[in-house]
Design brief:
Length: 205
């Protein structure tokens, strides 16, 4: 008997997540260069053929979890009530998948941060994230603000600013010693942008 469409899609999503999680676990344990498609498939408990049905290579598998978070954040943003201020809606939507997965106070080990540095520098991972739903974010912001996603610059500025917050938070996150939670960094970044990036007070000498 054929499984219902919804059940099949759910199982596919679970397999895709399991493969991506296995890829990330192996990167943290062994380093990027020592991770293979075969090892990822074995860790996830599936065949290499199954891996190849879901991902073109290890970098795509590694990037998948981040892409999934971005899709979930976009869905949350679209579902956010119209009366919620724009930057509040963006902040809470972007943080929602992070909070669901790791909570407010999770901080990685120094070894994990070192591997994140390696991941952030891998051109293959950046290429896998290149199609990062930016156009969909622009369209969603334009719809919420009553602007045109093609002719108006505003939704693009907001989307680009949101991406800049995420990138700045990640850069600070992977450089932190001791490690700090990324959720707090993201909150601070969005709050600063929402406030117009006021110049910080200079420390007295």
């Amino acid at each position: 008997m054929t499984a219902p469409q919804g059940l099949r899609e759910r199982k596919k999503a679970e397999t895709r997540r399991a493969l991506s999680d296995a890829a990330l676990q192996l990167v943290f344990e062994r380093g990027m260069d020592n991770v293979t498609r075969e090892a990822i498939a074995e860790r996830a408990g599936v065949s290499l053929r199954t891996f190849n049905n879901y991902f073109a290579g290890k970098y795509e598998a590694i990037a998948y979890r981040q892409l999934e978070r971005m899709r979930r954040a976009l869905s949350a943003f679209r579902a956010c009530p119209a009366g919620v201020p724009l930057w509040t809606a963006i902040t809470e939507s972007v943080l929602e998948p992070l909070l669901a997965e790791m909570g407010e106070d999770y901080a990685p080990t120094r070894k994990q941060l070192d591997q994140l540095v390696e991941l952030s520098m891998a051109i293959e991972v950046r290429n896998a994230l290149a199609n990062n739903l930016m156009a969909e974010w622009v369209a969603a912001i334009a719809e919420r603000t009553g602007t045109d996603p093609v002719r108006d610059m505003y939704p693009r500025l907001v989307a680009a600013s949101s991406r800049a917050v995420a990138e700045a938070a990640m850069d600070t996150y992977i450089a932190s010693d001791p490690p700090v939670p990324i959720v707090g960094l993201m909150r601070r970044g969005f709050a600063d942008v929402a406030a117009g990036l006021p110049e910080p007070q200079r420390k007295s000498s």
